[in-house]
Amino acid sequence: MAQARTDIGPPLYKDMLPPIIKENYGKWRYHEILKPGVLVHVSETGAKLYTVRAGSPRLISIYFIREICDLADKYCDGYLRFTSRHNIEFLLSDETKIDPLIADLNAMGVPVGGTGNSITNIVHTQGWVHCHTPATDASGIVKAVMDELFEYFTTMKLPAKLRIALACCLNMCGAVHCSDIAILGIHRTVPRIDHENLHKVCEIPTLTASCPTAAIRPNPKLKSIDIKAERCMYCGNCYTMCPSVHIIDPKNDAVSIWVGGKISNSRIGPRFSRLAIPFLPNNPPRWPEVVDAVKKLVEVWAANAQPGERMAEWIDRISWEKFFEITGLPFTDKHIDDFTLAQTTFRCTTQFKW
Ligand code: SF4
Ligand code: SF4
Q1: What start and end residues bound the annotated signal peptide (predicted)?
Q2: What is the pLDDT of residue 172?
Q3: Does 2 have pLDDT greater than 90?
Q4: Which of 22, 37, 75, 190 is an S-S bond match for 112, by CB 3.0 to 4.6 Å?
Q5: In 6-161, which ranges are continuous DSSP H helix?
Protein backbone atom coordinates (compact mmCIF):
# COMPACT_ATOMS: atom_id res chain seq x y z
CA MET A 1 0.00 0.00 0.00
CA ALA A 2 1.32 3.42 -0.94
CA GLN A 3 2.44 5.49 2.02
CA ALA A 4 0.55 8.70 2.69
CA ARG A 5 2.66 11.79 2.11
CA THR A 6 3.01 13.73 5.31
CA ASP A 7 5.66 16.23 4.27
CA ILE A 8 3.20 18.73 2.84
CA GLY A 9 2.64 22.01 4.69
CA PRO A 10 4.27 23.14 7.92
CA PRO A 11 6.56 20.77 9.78
CA LEU A 12 5.02 18.59 12.49
CA TYR A 13 4.87 20.69 15.66
CA LYS A 14 6.11 17.80 17.78
CA ASP A 15 9.49 17.95 16.02
CA MET A 16 10.05 21.39 17.51
CA LEU A 17 9.10 20.75 21.10
CA PRO A 18 11.83 21.16 23.72
CA PRO A 19 13.03 17.77 25.06
CA ILE A 20 11.45 18.47 28.49
CA ILE A 21 8.01 18.86 26.86
CA LYS A 22 8.45 15.72 24.76
CA GLU A 23 9.49 13.73 27.83
CA ASN A 24 6.52 14.98 29.87
CA TYR A 25 3.92 15.02 27.12
CA GLY A 26 0.47 14.47 28.68
CA LYS A 27 1.94 14.45 32.19
CA TRP A 28 1.71 18.13 33.16
CA ARG A 29 -0.18 18.48 36.45
CA TYR A 30 -0.48 22.22 37.04
CA HIS A 31 1.08 25.59 36.37
CA GLU A 32 1.47 28.78 38.35
CA ILE A 33 2.69 32.33 37.84
CA LEU A 34 5.93 32.98 39.73
CA LYS A 35 5.98 36.72 38.96
CA PRO A 36 4.73 38.95 36.12
CA GLY A 37 5.71 37.30 32.85
CA VAL A 38 7.14 34.11 34.39
CA LEU A 39 5.24 30.79 34.56
CA VAL A 40 6.21 27.35 35.79
CA HIS A 41 4.58 24.14 34.57
CA VAL A 42 5.08 21.14 36.86
CA SER A 43 4.93 17.56 35.62
CA GLU A 44 3.86 14.49 37.57
CA THR A 45 7.49 13.34 37.16
CA GLY A 46 8.61 16.42 39.10
CA ALA A 47 10.09 18.10 36.00
CA LYS A 48 9.60 21.87 35.76
CA LEU A 49 9.33 23.98 32.64
CA TYR A 50 9.74 27.75 33.04
CA THR A 51 8.23 30.19 30.57
CA VAL A 52 9.35 33.80 30.24
CA ARG A 53 6.75 35.81 28.32
CA ALA A 54 7.97 38.93 26.52
CA GLY A 55 5.89 41.41 24.56
CA SER A 56 6.79 41.83 20.91
CA PRO A 57 6.03 45.03 19.02
CA ARG A 58 4.01 42.76 16.63
CA LEU A 59 5.41 44.15 13.36
CA ILE A 60 9.02 43.08 13.72
CA SER A 61 12.17 43.22 11.64
CA ILE A 62 14.44 40.36 10.68
CA TYR A 63 17.11 41.95 12.91
CA PHE A 64 14.81 41.75 15.92
CA ILE A 65 14.03 38.09 15.14
CA ARG A 66 17.77 37.35 14.97
CA GLU A 67 18.33 39.03 18.34
CA ILE A 68 15.60 37.04 20.10
CA CYS A 69 16.83 33.83 18.48
CA ASP A 70 20.32 34.59 19.85
CA LEU A 71 18.76 34.96 23.32
CA ALA A 72 16.92 31.68 22.89
CA ASP A 73 20.22 29.98 21.91
CA LYS A 74 21.94 31.51 24.94
CA TYR A 75 19.32 30.66 27.57
CA CYS A 76 17.05 27.85 26.38
CA ASP A 77 18.77 25.75 23.69
CA GLY A 78 17.01 27.76 21.01
CA TYR A 79 13.44 27.01 22.11
CA LEU A 80 10.89 29.81 21.90
CA ARG A 81 7.40 30.27 20.55
CA PHE A 82 5.11 33.09 19.45
CA THR A 83 1.67 33.22 21.05
CA SER A 84 -1.49 34.23 19.21
CA ARG A 85 -1.23 37.62 20.94
CA HIS A 86 2.22 38.32 19.53
CA ASN A 87 4.04 37.52 22.75
CA ILE A 88 7.36 35.67 22.60
CA GLU A 89 7.68 32.84 25.09
CA PHE A 90 11.13 31.51 25.99
CA LEU A 91 10.94 27.93 27.30
CA LEU A 92 13.59 27.18 29.93
CA SER A 93 14.37 24.13 31.99
CA ASP A 94 17.02 25.90 34.13
CA GLU A 95 15.49 28.26 36.72
CA THR A 96 18.78 30.11 37.29
CA LYS A 97 18.64 31.45 33.73
CA ILE A 98 15.33 33.30 34.19
CA ASP A 99 16.65 36.55 35.68
CA PRO A 100 19.66 36.90 33.32
CA LEU A 101 17.28 36.36 30.34
CA ILE A 102 14.89 39.03 31.66
CA ALA A 103 17.83 41.42 32.15
CA ASP A 104 18.94 40.88 28.54
CA LEU A 105 15.38 41.35 27.25
CA ASN A 106 14.95 44.57 29.23
CA ALA A 107 18.30 45.83 27.93
CA MET A 108 16.86 45.38 24.39
CA GLY A 109 13.80 47.40 25.45
CA VAL A 110 11.58 44.30 25.42
CA PRO A 111 9.15 44.11 28.39
CA VAL A 112 8.35 40.92 30.29
CA GLY A 113 4.76 40.46 31.51
CA GLY A 114 1.30 39.78 30.14
CA THR A 115 0.43 37.04 32.65
CA GLY A 116 -2.37 36.77 35.21
CA ASN A 117 -4.31 39.92 36.10
CA SER A 118 -2.67 42.02 33.43
CA ILE A 119 -3.36 43.36 29.95
CA THR A 120 -1.45 41.16 27.58
CA ASN A 121 -0.57 42.18 24.03
CA ILE A 122 -3.54 43.21 21.91
CA VAL A 123 -4.67 40.74 19.27
CA HIS A 124 -5.38 42.59 16.05
CA THR A 125 -6.07 42.31 12.36
CA GLN A 126 -4.12 43.59 9.38
CA GLY A 127 -5.23 47.18 8.87
CA TRP A 128 -3.98 49.50 6.24
CA VAL A 129 -0.74 47.56 5.75
CA HIS A 130 -2.18 44.37 4.29
CA CYS A 131 -5.95 44.31 3.82
CA HIS A 132 -8.20 46.05 1.30
CA THR A 133 -11.40 46.54 3.35
CA PRO A 134 -10.29 48.27 6.58
CA ALA A 135 -12.32 51.12 8.02
CA THR A 136 -9.36 51.99 10.22
CA ASP A 137 -5.79 50.92 10.84
CA ALA A 138 -4.84 48.06 13.16
CA SER A 139 -1.18 48.29 14.17
CA GLY A 140 -1.29 52.09 14.50
CA ILE A 141 -4.16 52.18 17.00
CA VAL A 142 -2.83 49.18 18.89
CA LYS A 143 0.56 50.85 19.30
CA ALA A 144 -1.05 54.07 20.55
CA VAL A 145 -3.37 52.23 23.00
CA MET A 146 -0.70 49.87 24.32
CA ASP A 147 1.76 52.74 24.86
CA GLU A 148 -0.83 54.21 27.24
CA LEU A 149 -1.61 50.91 29.00
CA PHE A 150 1.99 49.69 29.18
CA GLU A 151 2.14 49.57 33.01
CA TYR A 152 -0.67 46.99 33.02
CA PHE A 153 1.46 44.63 30.88
CA THR A 154 4.37 44.47 33.31
CA THR A 155 2.27 44.28 36.50
CA MET A 156 -0.64 42.12 37.70
CA LYS A 157 -2.57 44.74 39.68
CA LEU A 158 -5.92 44.56 37.85
CA PRO A 159 -8.96 42.78 39.38
CA ALA A 160 -8.77 40.08 36.67
CA LYS A 161 -7.19 39.56 33.29
CA LEU A 162 -8.26 42.00 30.60
CA ARG A 163 -8.19 41.06 26.93
CA ILE A 164 -8.24 43.78 24.29
CA ALA A 165 -8.73 43.13 20.57
CA LEU A 166 -8.92 45.22 17.44
CA ALA A 167 -10.49 44.47 14.09
CA CYS A 168 -10.37 47.01 11.30
CA CYS A 169 -13.74 46.04 9.80
CA LEU A 170 -16.66 44.03 11.06
CA ASN A 171 -15.66 40.98 9.02
CA MET A 172 -13.42 40.80 12.02
CA CYS A 173 -10.52 38.47 11.61
CA GLY A 174 -9.55 39.51 15.18
CA ALA A 175 -11.14 38.47 18.48
CA VAL A 176 -13.43 41.46 18.81
CA HIS A 177 -16.56 39.46 19.63
CA CYS A 178 -14.98 37.75 22.63
CA SER A 179 -12.70 40.33 24.26
CA ASP A 180 -13.22 42.41 27.40
CA ILE A 181 -12.66 45.58 25.37
CA ALA A 182 -12.82 45.60 21.60
CA ILE A 183 -11.90 48.30 19.12
CA LEU A 184 -13.75 47.86 15.85
CA GLY A 185 -13.38 49.84 12.64
CA ILE A 186 -16.78 50.47 11.09
CA HIS A 187 -17.99 51.43 7.64
CA ARG A 188 -21.21 53.40 7.89
CA THR A 189 -22.44 53.74 4.34
CA VAL A 190 -23.88 51.38 1.74
CA PRO A 191 -21.27 50.41 -0.89
CA ARG A 192 -21.22 52.52 -4.06
CA ILE A 193 -21.67 50.41 -7.21
CA ASP A 194 -19.60 51.06 -10.31
CA HIS A 195 -22.17 49.67 -12.79
CA GLU A 196 -20.02 50.40 -15.80
CA ASN A 197 -17.13 48.18 -14.73
CA LEU A 198 -18.78 45.63 -12.48
CA HIS A 199 -19.64 43.08 -15.17
CA LYS A 200 -16.12 43.32 -16.60
CA VAL A 201 -14.33 42.35 -13.38
CA CYS A 202 -16.78 40.52 -11.11
CA GLU A 203 -18.82 37.32 -11.12
CA ILE A 204 -22.36 38.35 -10.24
CA PRO A 205 -23.45 35.00 -8.68
CA THR A 206 -20.38 34.97 -6.43
CA LEU A 207 -20.97 38.59 -5.50
CA THR A 208 -24.64 37.98 -4.71
CA ALA A 209 -23.75 34.97 -2.58
CA SER A 210 -21.11 36.94 -0.67
CA CYS A 211 -23.65 39.09 1.15
CA PRO A 212 -24.49 37.65 4.59
CA THR A 213 -27.83 39.50 4.78
CA ALA A 214 -29.04 38.88 1.21
CA ALA A 215 -28.97 42.61 0.48
CA ILE A 216 -27.55 42.06 -3.02
CA ARG A 217 -29.80 41.18 -5.98
CA PRO A 218 -28.76 40.81 -9.62
CA ASN A 219 -29.77 43.63 -11.97
CA PRO A 220 -29.89 41.89 -15.39
CA LYS A 221 -30.78 45.12 -17.20
CA LEU A 222 -27.50 46.76 -16.23
CA LYS A 223 -25.58 43.45 -16.09
CA SER A 224 -24.83 44.54 -12.55
CA ILE A 225 -26.37 44.34 -9.07
CA ASP A 226 -28.57 46.36 -6.73
CA ILE A 227 -28.12 46.70 -2.97
CA LYS A 228 -31.15 46.89 -0.70
CA ALA A 229 -29.96 49.61 1.67
CA GLU A 230 -32.16 48.60 4.61
CA ARG A 231 -30.63 45.09 4.65
CA CYS A 232 -27.01 46.27 4.39
CA MET A 233 -24.87 46.18 7.54
CA TYR A 234 -21.82 47.77 5.85
CA CYS A 235 -19.63 44.70 6.37
CA GLY A 236 -17.69 45.11 3.14
CA ASN A 237 -17.83 41.42 2.29
CA CYS A 238 -19.06 42.27 -1.21
CA TYR A 239 -16.04 44.54 -1.74
CA THR A 240 -13.82 41.57 -0.89
CA MET A 241 -15.41 39.76 -3.85
CA CYS A 242 -15.67 42.70 -6.22
CA PRO A 243 -13.62 45.88 -6.47
CA SER A 244 -16.51 47.61 -8.27
CA VAL A 245 -18.54 47.72 -5.05
CA HIS A 246 -16.76 50.45 -3.13
CA ILE A 247 -17.06 50.34 0.66
CA ILE A 248 -14.15 52.60 1.69
CA ASP A 249 -15.45 56.03 2.65
CA PRO A 250 -12.83 58.22 4.37
CA LYS A 251 -15.40 60.78 5.57
CA ASN A 252 -17.71 58.25 7.26
CA ASP A 253 -15.48 55.35 8.26
CA ALA A 254 -14.95 55.40 12.01
CA VAL A 255 -14.09 53.46 15.15
CA SER A 256 -16.46 51.87 17.69
CA ILE A 257 -15.77 50.36 21.11
CA TRP A 258 -17.33 47.15 22.46
CA VAL A 259 -17.18 45.58 25.92
CA GLY A 260 -17.81 42.37 27.84
CA GLY A 261 -16.97 39.62 25.33
CA LYS A 262 -15.60 36.29 26.59
CA ILE A 263 -14.78 32.93 25.10
CA SER A 264 -16.53 29.86 26.44
CA ASN A 265 -15.17 27.54 29.09
CA SER A 266 -16.22 24.12 30.27
CA ARG A 267 -19.13 25.56 32.27
CA ILE A 268 -20.54 28.50 30.30
CA GLY A 269 -21.01 29.38 26.66
CA PRO A 270 -19.28 32.30 24.95
CA ARG A 271 -20.44 35.88 25.48
CA PHE A 272 -20.60 38.37 22.63
CA SER A 273 -19.27 41.84 23.37
CA ARG A 274 -21.78 44.72 23.39
CA LEU A 275 -21.62 48.13 21.81
CA ALA A 276 -20.41 50.75 24.29
CA ILE A 277 -19.30 53.63 22.04
CA PRO A 278 -20.83 53.71 18.54
CA PHE A 279 -18.59 56.37 17.01
CA LEU A 280 -15.11 57.73 17.53
CA PRO A 281 -13.29 59.61 14.80
CA ASN A 282 -10.61 57.92 12.76
CA ASN A 283 -7.78 60.16 13.84
CA PRO A 284 -4.30 58.89 12.88
CA PRO A 285 -1.44 58.76 13.71
CA ARG A 286 -2.22 58.45 17.45
CA TRP A 287 -6.05 58.15 17.62
CA PRO A 288 -6.30 60.21 20.87
CA GLU A 289 -10.09 59.78 21.20
CA VAL A 290 -9.81 55.98 20.99
CA VAL A 291 -6.85 55.85 23.40
CA ASP A 292 -8.69 58.02 25.96
CA ALA A 293 -11.87 55.95 25.69
CA VAL A 294 -10.08 52.59 26.17
CA LYS A 295 -7.98 53.94 29.05
CA LYS A 296 -11.06 55.28 30.78
CA LEU A 297 -12.90 51.96 30.44
CA VAL A 298 -9.90 50.10 31.90
CA GLU A 299 -9.60 52.51 34.81
CA VAL A 300 -13.32 52.59 35.67
CA TRP A 301 -13.52 48.79 35.56
CA ALA A 302 -10.30 48.45 37.63
CA ALA A 303 -11.64 50.86 40.26
CA ASN A 304 -15.06 49.19 40.58
CA ALA A 305 -14.73 45.46 39.81
CA GLN A 306 -14.35 42.89 42.56
CA PRO A 307 -11.33 40.54 42.56
CA GLY A 308 -11.64 38.02 39.74
CA GLU A 309 -14.46 39.90 38.03
CA ARG A 310 -13.86 40.38 34.32
CA MET A 311 -15.54 43.14 32.35
CA ALA A 312 -18.60 40.99 31.50
CA GLU A 313 -19.13 39.84 35.07
CA TRP A 314 -18.73 43.37 36.41
CA ILE A 315 -21.36 44.64 33.97
CA ASP A 316 -23.67 41.72 34.87
CA ARG A 317 -23.41 42.63 38.55
CA ILE A 318 -23.92 46.39 38.24
CA SER A 319 -26.34 46.22 35.22
CA TRP A 320 -25.99 47.62 31.71
CA GLU A 321 -27.77 50.82 32.72
CA LYS A 322 -25.37 51.44 35.60
CA PHE A 323 -22.41 50.78 33.28
CA PHE A 324 -23.32 53.87 31.28
CA GLU A 325 -23.87 55.86 34.47
CA ILE A 326 -20.51 54.93 36.03
CA THR A 327 -18.48 55.33 32.84
CA GLY A 328 -20.24 58.58 31.91
CA LEU A 329 -20.79 57.26 28.37
CA PRO A 330 -23.96 58.49 26.67
CA PHE A 331 -26.61 55.86 25.86
CA THR A 332 -27.87 56.57 22.33
CA ASP A 333 -30.32 55.10 19.85
CA LYS A 334 -27.34 53.29 18.29
CA HIS A 335 -27.15 51.08 21.38
CA ILE A 336 -30.58 49.60 20.70
CA ASP A 337 -30.14 46.35 18.81
CA ASP A 338 -33.00 46.52 16.33
CA PHE A 339 -31.30 44.69 13.48
CA THR A 340 -34.31 42.81 12.12
CA LEU A 341 -32.33 39.88 10.74
CA ALA A 342 -30.67 39.13 14.07
CA GLN A 343 -32.73 36.06 14.81
CA THR A 344 -31.75 34.47 11.50
CA THR A 345 -28.11 35.49 11.40
CA PHE A 346 -26.82 35.36 14.99
CA ARG A 347 -25.46 32.12 16.39
CA CYS A 348 -24.44 32.87 19.95
CA THR A 349 -23.39 29.58 21.47
CA THR A 350 -21.80 26.31 20.53
CA GLN A 351 -24.87 24.68 22.10
CA PHE A 352 -27.09 26.21 19.39
CA LYS A 353 -29.28 23.62 17.65
CA TRP A 354 -30.50 24.27 14.13
FE1 SF4 B 1 -9.38 43.01 6.48
FE2 SF4 B 1 -11.60 43.31 7.93
FE3 SF4 B 1 -9.77 41.51 8.63
FE4 SF4 B 1 -9.28 44.12 8.88
S5 SF4 B 1 -10.82 42.92 10.00
S6 SF4 B 1 -7.88 42.60 8.07
S7 SF4 B 1 -10.31 44.94 7.08
S8 SF4 B 1 -11.03 41.50 6.75
FE1 SF4 C 1 -24.09 42.88 1.89
FE2 SF4 C 1 -22.11 43.61 3.50
FE3 SF4 C 1 -22.10 44.38 0.93
FE4 SF4 C 1 -23.84 45.43 2.64
S5 SF4 C 1 -21.63 45.67 2.72
S6 SF4 C 1 -24.26 44.70 0.59
S7 SF4 C 1 -24.28 43.67 3.98
S8 SF4 C 1 -21.96 42.27 1.72
Answers
A1: none
A2: 77
A3: no
A4: 37
A5: 19-23, 62-76, 98-107, 127-130, 139-148, 151-154
Ligand 2 atom with least separation from CA of 216: 6
Mind listing the pLDDT tens digit for each residue in 8-48?
Answer: 788 888 888 999 999 999 999 999 999 999 999 999 999 99
CATH number of 14-108: 3.30.70.3340
281 Cα: distance to centroid of ligand 2 (angstroms): 22
Which of 118, 122, 93 lies closest to 37, judged by CA? Answer: 118
DSSP state of 134: -
How much distance in Å is there from the Cα of 267 to the middle of ligand 2? Answer: 35
Q: How far is CA 132 from CA 128, 188, 199, 281, 294, in A?
A: 7, 16, 20, 20, 26
Pick the CATH number of 192-246 from 3.40.120.10, 3.40.250.10, 3.40.50.200, 3.30.70.20: 3.30.70.20
Pocket test residue of 238, 239, 341 for ligand 2, highest count of atoms within 8 A of CB? 238
Residue nearest to atom 1 of ligand 1 (CA): 131
Q: Interface pTM (ipTM) of the complex? A: 0.97
- Nearest ligand, CA 227: 2
User: What pTM was computed for the model?
Assistant: 0.90
Pick the CATH number of 138-187+250-345 from 2.170.130.30, 3.30.450.20, 3.30.413.10, 3.30.565.10: 3.30.413.10
CA 292 to centroid of chain Cα atoms: 19
Cβ–ligand 1 distance for 169 under 6 Å, the answer yes
Residue ID of nearest Cα to ligand 1 atom 2: 169
Using a 6 Å CB cutoff, which residues line ligand 2?
191, 210-211, 213, 215-216, 227, 232-238, 247
DSSP tag of 351:
T
